[in-house]
């Protein structure tokens, strides 16, 4: 991370990722970034956001629709998160949503109630990490859903431990962004495939995603492949996982319809 110093550095980093996403046939990206990790190094916020955003714009040249989700680091204070939100106000039109990531231990969602309330007031979409198999996972998920009122839950497969939570997520049509390869690394070699497929069969809008691919060793195709190789995944389940990613994306109904139709067309052509 220490090599990221200039706006151009952030541009090149994002562009290389987006090119790789394109090679994986990704059409739409909602990309997380953690400005606080760079601010403490003395990197100006405009270097971070403008560099990443320029890459998102330039990715349109190869038909990748890319957007930014700015995350609060949960091991920092709520005051720091609120300050970041204030600092980012001049860049509001470049940021699609607000998220929460990093160390979950002793850092529950309620710690960030006020910054997220402010984010909603400012018109941001909101999501939040609920990392797998953490201490107080279920309580943290309940806080995120019932008090913070997130629109989406990142990871979150621990809801299988509470049938009422599963029903609640289904009623909300709320998406879970699961990342098998990072699951495997932060647990005891468990992709959480059983949980993913059980939730899928229950009608939960779970999807497959990449998580820090340079660190966790896999882009989106690698995550699908790992799941399919380890578990008895049917073609129909793969299709539904892909559709869920668009159904829970922060895009217009017209865009959703276009992407879902493209999946259906691909399946028809693949089966011919």
TrEMBL record:
Its cofactor is Zn(2+). Keywords: Hydrolase, Metal-binding, Zinc. One of its GO terms (biological process) is hypoxanthine salvage. It comes from the Bacteria. InterPro entries: A/AMP_deam_AS, A_deaminase_dom, Ado/ade_deaminase, Metal_Hydrolase. The keyword Manganese does not apply. Residues 2-265 form the Adenosine deaminase domain. GO terms for molecular function: adenine deaminase activity; metal ion binding. PROSITE patterns: A_DEAMINASE. It holds the Pfam family A_deaminase. GO terms for cellular component: cytosol. NCBIfam families: aden_deam. Belongs to the metallo-dependent hydrolases superfamily. Adenosine and AMP deaminases family. This is Add protein. It comes from Companilactobacillus versmoldensis DSM 14857 = KCTC 3814.
């Amino acid at each position: 991370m220490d090599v990221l110093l200039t706006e151009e550095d952030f541009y090149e980093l994002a562009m290389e990722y987006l090119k790789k996403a394109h090679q994986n046939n990704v059409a739409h990206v909602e990309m997380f970034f953690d400005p606080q990790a760079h601010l403490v190094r003395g990197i100006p916020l405009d270097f971070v956001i403008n560099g990443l955003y320029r890459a998102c714009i330039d990715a349109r040249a190869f038909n990748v629709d890319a957007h930014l989700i700015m995350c609060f680091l949960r091991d920092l204070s709520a005051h720091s998160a609120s300050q970041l939100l204030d600092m980012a106000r001049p860049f509001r039109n470049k940021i699609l949503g607000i998220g929460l990531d990093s160390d979950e231990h002793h850092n529950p969602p309620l710690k960030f109630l006020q910054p997220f309330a402010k984010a909603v007031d400012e018109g941001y979409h909101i999501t939040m990490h609920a990392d797998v198999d953490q201490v107080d996972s279920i309580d943290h998920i309940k806080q995120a859903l019932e008090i913070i009122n997130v629109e989406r839950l990142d990871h979150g497969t621990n809801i299988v431990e509470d049938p009422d939570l599963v029903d609640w997520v289904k009623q909300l049509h709320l998406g879970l962004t699961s990342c098998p390869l990072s699951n495997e690394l932060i647990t005891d070699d468990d992709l959480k495939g059983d949980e993913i497929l059980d939730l899928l069969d229950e009608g939960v809008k779970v999807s497959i995603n990449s998580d820090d691919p340079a660190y966790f060793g896999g882009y989106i195709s690698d995550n699908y492949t790992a799941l399919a190789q380890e578990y008895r995944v049917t073609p129909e389940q793969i299709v539904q996982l892909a559709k869920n990613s668009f159904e829970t994306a922060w895009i217009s109904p017209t865009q959703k319809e276009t992407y879902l139709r493209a999946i259906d067309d691909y399946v028809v052509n693949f089966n011919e």
